[in-house]
TrEMBL record, chain A:
It comes from Sphingobium subterraneum. Gene3D superfamilies: Aldolase class I. Keywords: Iron, Iron-sulfur, Metal-binding, S-adenosyl-L-methionine. This is Putative DNA modification/repair radical SAM protein. Pfam families: Radical_SAM. SMART domains: Elp3. The lineage of its organism: Bacteria, Pseudomonadati, Pseudomonadota, Alphaproteobacteria, Sphingomonadales.
TrEMBL record, chain B:
Transmembrane segments: none annotated. It comes from the Bacteria. Keywords: 4Fe-4S, DNA damage, DNA repair, Hydrolase, Iron, Iron-sulfur, Metal-binding, Nucleotidyltransferase, Transferase. This is Type-4 uracil-DNA glycosylase. SUPFAM superfamilies: Uracil-DNA glycosylase-like. SMART domains: UDG, UreE_C. GO terms for biological process: DNA repair. GO terms for molecular function: 4 iron, 4 sulfur cluster binding; deaminated base DNA N-glycosylase activity; metal ion binding; nucleotidyltransferase activity. Residues 308-467 form the Uracil-DNA glycosylase-like domain. CDD domains: UDG-F4_TTUDGA_SPO1dp_like (cd10030). InterPro entries: DNA_repair_put (IPR023875), DUF4130 (IPR025404), UDG_Type-4/5 (IPR051536), Ura-DNA_glyco_family4 (IPR005273), Uracil-DNA_glycosylase-like (IPR005122), Uracil-DNA_glycosylase-like_sf (IPR036895). Belongs to the uracil-DNA glycosylase (UDG) superfamily. Type 4 (UDGa) family.
Length: 412, 477
């Protein structure tokens, strides 16, 4: 068979990579190439160089090294039994592609993943070679994210962390039973074992750097993972619980959720319909509540209904507030930071601005209007020097008044 | 305290060299505030603009700045804010900042009063500037031009909203110091040749290269990484506003991608989704009818006769083969051809009564390749087996066998959901999720393909596997 052109292969291998949600390029060590050696820089903040019509940020060149795979995971478009077109890149081709995109300022760096050819360790070696060549042969100082393969030799996974800014291993499914059913070749213990080893290596490297200034960095942007939502029957409550255990146990930077989407040549074991995209969004919001708003897991789970699902028409913070009306309204001029953070419509920055401003004056409703995006959503939940929501908080139709008008979901 | 000046009628018209001249503003603002000149008696303009209040004294005509009457204070928060706001395109920015500086002299806490209208307005302006700086870093697109000495120069055309180009130079130096680059904008151009950063006046879009071969590759990447199953155009436009599109090569594709998305998703679903969206059949007769009409995979569409399972509807043993063969398809019954004869022979040998077992196949239609007058058997693909599994699952739910004998890897896949290795996994009894027991062995047609000693050896192994089953079957009948 003739080898397809680089363009055709890029199409195949980028297409196959799009089911990974993460494209973050943030949170790594600061680097630059001001000295004229090598190329590239990173800062604390990532940059999204483009946005696709699916609303996702394009920050990195996200490709697979190959979409040949010896595994047969039902949810994956690249599984052995799928009839998709196959292609592969050599490590050098990926390196050249990355550099030519980077030099034109299309991308922040590379996100490399791969199907598994020959063996897990062989595949991992090839991926590491790409990262090594970029760093050593070309002095590349941009961002590198390597999706590591949990079944590979632990020594190789450790090597990946030395070249990459971020490493990630997908836990794939929120429940072990789901993994056993949909990914028969994978093993949740092995996955979590590998995540745990990377977590330990990150902590050790950080510790070493506090004592030795030139100790090598290990995945300075930490590790992340991804869960597919809606491919098995796990509910939101279970998913939030699992994510939180992962955060706690392995100090992950991020848990990404990917709403299961129909894939070409899908396996018959999968559900018929994709979950609403809004479900993925609500899970991210609940993730935020736990990480930045001081909510506990059980509190977020209280926002879910009896079936453990978060409401789709309103955000989880509003859902929680509607179930805890006795805690509202909160006095903007006296309420604690913790309580202000629980007011629907107040973000962390607005809360900080309120705390600063109220040291000097009693805040009125129009002050609040300048400190936040909109007071309409806030009004039932706060009191200010000139505002008190007498009856609003007790109104039964409050949910209806605050929920946005329902729209037909596109292509249901 | 701000005290009125002695000469109350004076208006000071102050000049700045460049739109982003922070140092010039800072110096003059400090002098004005030190002399207690109130904001309403100060006007600001750019030297190049030539506009000036005719009756005002101006700073470039050797105007004597009024003597300082107090020390001026500004905290770090103010300087940070001013450094950003000065880059804003709003001509009122200099006066607004001076008014804030003026008020700051009387109110030390002003910078903390985040709800103050002046501070709020300047905060918004600083935010717009920060966003523009960020968007420039994101949306500058270089095209390669070859210079006289044969080396590449990376040239970009960009149109910022605010006066941010100079402030952003460091970012591009930190990133691209090892390549020659130029950023052309309507107001100011930056050129880097590896040694020194040169500034030049505004340029025209025509000064930048018209194309770059790599853009085609980038566009293909952009189109491929987009998932048509999740269209969120509003989100994209919010982060990548339309005014930037004309200078982004990939943005040319957006209208077509959006228009094609729905069609692509429908195609993806049609190609990939489970066609079995109705309720599973409730009787074995329904299965027999259903498989005749099933067109869920290419085998179902090849015009052959579907072959249903046969045997008692409460059989304790279910025997699962791969698919009907040539004879089976003609007769419409499973395992009646040569392989069926081999199976019957060995079942007899170990004392299993075939008529009391349910005999069926993983795939219900015959997949073949025409070769002259003959129809040559072809193995079903994993995807086809997975599709047809829906029928087998239904049959198992209805018959509820205690024991399942899977013949060959295809049958194994239909029961396990993965393709097992017959060599490694044959002959051991395992438990399926529904509690029934599975024994895996070779397919009898495999025996037919062997000769002599090899065949005798394999037949013995086959018989041994079946022999394991015999007491279990007998015990329960």
């Amino acid at each position: 068979m003739a080898i397809a052109s680089i363009t055709e292969r890029l199409e195949i291998l980028a297409d196959a990579a799009k089911y990974d949600a993460s494209c973050a390029s943030s949170g790594t060590a600061k680097r630059h190439s001001r000295d004229g050696k090598g190329i590239g820089s990173t800062q604390g903040m990532g940059i999204c160089h483009a946005y696709a019509p699916d609303g996702r940020c394009i920050s990195l060149l996200k490709v697979l090294l190959t979409n040949h795979c010896i595994f047969d995971c039902h949810y994956c478009v690249n599984r052995k039994s799928s009839n998709v077109r196959r292609a592969r890149f050599t490590p050098k081709e990926v390196v050249d592609l990355t550099l030519s995109f980077y030099r034109r300022n299309y991308i922040e760096g590379l996100f490399l993943s791969s199907g598994i050819v020959k063996s897990s360790s062989h595949t991992m070696e090839q991926m590491i070679e790409v990262a090594r060549s970029l760093r050593e042969d070309h002095g590349f100082r941009g961002y590198i994210h390597l999706k590591t393969i949990p079944e590979a030799d632990p020594a190789l996974i450790e090597q990946a962390g030395l070249w990459a800014d971020r490493v990630s291993i997908n836990v794939e499914l929120p429940t072990d039973a789901g993994l056993a059913r949909l990914a028969p070749d994978k093993d949740s213990q092995q996955i979590e074992g590998a995540i745990g080893r990377i977590g330990d290596a990150i902590v050790e490297a950080k510790d070493a750097r506090t004592r030795f200034r030139h100790a090598p960095r290990f995945a300075p942007a930490g590790q992340s993972t991804q869960m597919i939502v809606g491919a098995d029957d796990a509910n939101d409550s279970q998913i939030i619980g699992r994510a939180n255990r992962l955060y706690d146990r392995y100090r992950l930077r991020r848990v990404y959720y990917s709403a299961f989407s129909p894939i070409p040549d899908a396996s018959a074991v999968l559900p018929l319909k994709r979950p609403p995209l809004m479900r993925e969004h609500r899970l991210y919001q609940s993730d935020w509540l736990i990480r930045f708003y001081g909510f506990s897991v059980t509190e977020v789970q209280q926002a879910a209904d009896e079936g453990g699902m978060l409401p789709l028409d309103i955000d989880p913070k509003l859902a929680w507030a509607l179930r805890h009306r006795e805690d509202f309204p909160v006095d903007v001029n006296r309420g604690s930071r913790e309580m202000l953070l629980r007011v629907p419509g107040l973000g962390t920055r607005a809360v900080d601005a309120i705390l600063r401003a109220r040291r000097h004056q009693r805040l009125r409703l129009d002050d609040l209007g300048r400190l936040t995006r909109s007071v309409t959503k806030l009004r039932p939940f706060v009191t200010t020097a000139d505002w008190r929501p007498t009856l609003l908080i007790d109104r039964l139709d409050l949910r209806h008044r605050l929920a946005p008008p329902r729209q037909m979901e596109l292509f249901g | 305290m701000n005290r009125p000046l002695a000469r109350a009628a004076d208006v000071y018209s102050l000049l700045l060299d460049r739109p982003d001249d922070f140092e010039g503003w800072r110096e003059q603002a400090r002098a004005m505030a030190a002399a207690c000149v109130p904001p309403e008696r100060v006007t600001w303009s750019l030297a190049a603009e030539g506009e000036r209040d005719l009756f005002a004294q101006s700073s470039d005509e050797g105007m004597a700045l009024p003597p300082a009457r107090r020390a001026v204070r500004a905290n770090a928060a103010f300087l940070r804010l001013a450094g950003s706001v000065i880059l804003h395109r709003d001509p009122a920015r200099f006066a607004l900042l001076y008014r804030l500086l003026w008020r700051l002299q009387d109110d030390r806490q002003l910078m903390d009063k985040t709800s103050d209208p002046d501070l709020h307005r300047l905060g918004l302006m600083a935010g717009q500037v920060r966003r523009d700086i960020h968007k420039m870093r994101a949306f500058v697109r270089f095209r390669v031009a070859v210079e006289a000495d044969g080396r590449d120069r990376y040239v970009a055309w960009f149109e910022p909203d605010h006066h941010i180009v100079r402030a952003n130079a460091d970012f591009f130096l930190n990133r691209f110091a090892s390549q020659r680059w130029s950023i052309l904008t309507p107001e100011l151009c930056l050129h880097w040749d590896g040694g020194e950063l040169l500034e030049a006046g505004g340029a025209d879009p025509k000064d930048a290269p018209r194309e770059d071969a790599t853009e085609d590759l980038w566009q293909r990447y952009y189109a491929s990484i987009f998932n048509p199953a999740r269209l969120k155009v509003a989100m994209m436009v919010k982060e990548m506003p339309r005014r930037y599109w004309k200078n982004l090569p990939e943005a040319r594709l957006i209208p077509d991608l959006i228009a094609g998305a729905q069609a692509r998703e429908v195609a993806m679903v049609a190609q990939g989704s489970d066609p079995f969206s109705r309720a599973p059949p409730a009787t074995l007769a329904e299965i027999a009818e259903g498989i005749v009409a099933c067109r869920a995979c290419p085998i179902g569409c090849n015009g052959t006769r579907a072959v249903a399972g046969e045997g008692p509807d409460d059989a304790r043993l279910m025997i699962v083969g791969e698919q009907p063969g040539d004879s089976e398809e003609r007769e419409g019954r499973p395992f009646v051809g040569p392989a069926g004869a081999v199976l019957d022979h060995h079942l007899n040998d170990v004392g299993i009564d075939r008529s009391r077992a349910r005999v069926t196949n993983a795939v219900k239609h015959f997949k073949f390749e025409p070769r002259g007058k003959r129809r040559l058997h072809q193995s079903p693909t994993a995807g086809e087996i997975d599709h047809c599994r829906w029928w087998l699952d239904a049959e198992r739910r209805l018959v509820r066998p205690n024991l399942v004998l899977a013949l060959g890897a295809s049958a194994g896949r239909a029961l396990l959901g993965r393709t097992p290795s017959i060599a490694k996994e044959r002959g051991t009894l395992t438990t399926l999720p529904d509690g029934s027991h599975l024994l895996l062995t070779a397919h009898p047609s495999y025996l037919l393909r062997l000769d002599g000693e090899a065949r005798a050896k394999e037949e013995q192994r086959f018989r041994d596997d079946l022999a394991q089953l015999a007491p279990l079957v007998a015990g329960r009948f």
